[in-house]
């Protein structure tokens, strides 16, 4: 409490941003406005998700390729093992390599039917670790993988989940990006457990700026992410007050980021949901400022 708010931030934080591929022209416009707003902050990379069951294969590719072509930011493509053979996935990865994309976020993915048990596609990659090993054989990609501070719902326990993360790292992943979480201590406990399990690669916290509390509660339940009572209390009565809600959302995400920074975190990954404002504000509070040269390029 002795340090004034955000005064201890030295401007040495680095960020990355995650987007999803747009479905309509309007969504495409929103995405590009967001990319142009966030690009001058000089993110380490931006990544584009891959829809369930490979449904966005073309759109993910088009979005990543456009970012790679039109901005100075390294673009990463998410890729999953769902509903595809190894040969099909390898072909997608080869297309990325040929388009100049050097970073893949390698994931197992979820079953196409919500709630169903995951089954490996005949002739497909078995899981994310298997996909990482496959990608490594193809090209010297930079590879990020997923990590779960509160344990993946399919995992019997956190020890099993950490073993799985270690397998992904040993297969050749560069870093892990975490599922979103709401308490800084959740991340710190996980970081310590990962270190104790011999995982020394970078673990980047995934920050989800919560705008719509009801939908975040739904998503959190699906991902095994605990929603603290204080969060419900902070969003109480704000359903019809979008502007106030946005300020509260920014405060919560900024406070989480500040605590993470105070605990030694310097790299942050933002789930932007294709909206720039909240992520931009939090980056600003973290001491990150637009770089004039990148601003000109974005314009
Ligand atoms: P894995 O690491 O392969 O494992 C998932 C679980 O299965 C773990 O609990 C593990 O312990 C268990 N498991 C794996 N292999 C075995 C084995 N051989 N035996 C026993 N248990 C095993 N989904 C998308 O569809 N598209 C995206 O773009 C996307 N992006 C994401 C980005 C991030 C940063 C994160 C955190 C998640 C993302 N997801 C995405 C969600 C992800 O696909 C799901 O969480 C999925 O259920 C697990 O994927 P994974 O790569 O973590 O799987």
Strand arrangement in the largest pleated sheet: 7-6-5-4-3-2-1-9-8
Secondary-structure element order, N to C: EHEHEHEHEHEHEEHHHEHH
Q: Indicate the low-confidence ranges by residue numbers.
A: none
The kinds of small molecule bound in this structure are:
flavin-adenine dinucleotide
Shape: globular
Terminus-to-terminus distance: 40 Å
Mean pLDDT: 93
Strand content: 5-15%
Query: Biggest sheet, open or closed, and with what strands and sense?
Result: 9 strands, parallel
Please write out the topology.
Blueprint: E1 14-19, H1 25-38, E2 45-48, H2 57-70, E3 75-80, H3 86-98, E4 103-107, H4 128-138, E5 142-147, H5 158-170, E6 175-178, H6 184-196, E7 202-204, E8 206-207, H7 213-223, H8 229-235, H9 242-262, E9 267-271, H10 277-285, H11 292-298
Parallel strand pairs: 1-2, 1-9, 2-3, 3-4, 4-5, 5-6, 6-7, 8-9
The structure holds flavin-adenine dinucleotide.
Flavin-adenine dinucleotide (FAD) binds next to β3, β4 and α5.
Give structural notes.
- With 299 residues, this protein is an alpha/beta fold.
- Helices cover 44% and strands 14% of the residues.
- The chain has eleven helices and nine strands.
- The chain has helices at residues 25-38, 57-70, 86-98, 128-138, 158-170, 184-196, 213-223, 229-235, 242-262, 277-285, 292-298; strands at residues 14-19, 45-48, 75-80, 103-107, 142-147, 175-178, 202-204, 206-207, 267-271.
- Strands 7-6-5-4-3-2-1-9-8 form a nine-stranded parallel sheet, covered by helices on one side.
- Helix 2 (57-70) links the parallel strand 2 and strand 3.
- Helix 4 runs parallel beside helix 5 (158-170) and helix 9 (242-262) packs parallel to helix 10.
- The chain is globular and about 55 Å long.
- The relative contact order is 0.16.
- The mean pLDDT is 93.
- Flavin-adenine dinucleotide (FAD) binds at residues 49-50, 52, 78, 80, 105, 107-110, 127-128, 146, 152, 154-155, 160-161, 164, 168, 177, 179, 206.
- Pathway: One-carbon metabolism; tetrahydrofolate interconversion; Amino-acid biosynthesis; L-methionine biosynthesis via de novo pathway.
- One of its GO terms (biological process) is methionine biosynthetic process.
- It is an enzyme of class 1 (oxidoreductase).
- It catalyses: (6S)-5-methyl-5,6,7,8-tetrahydrofolate + NAD(+) = (6R)-5,10-methylene-5,6,7,8-tetrahydrofolate + NADH + H(+).
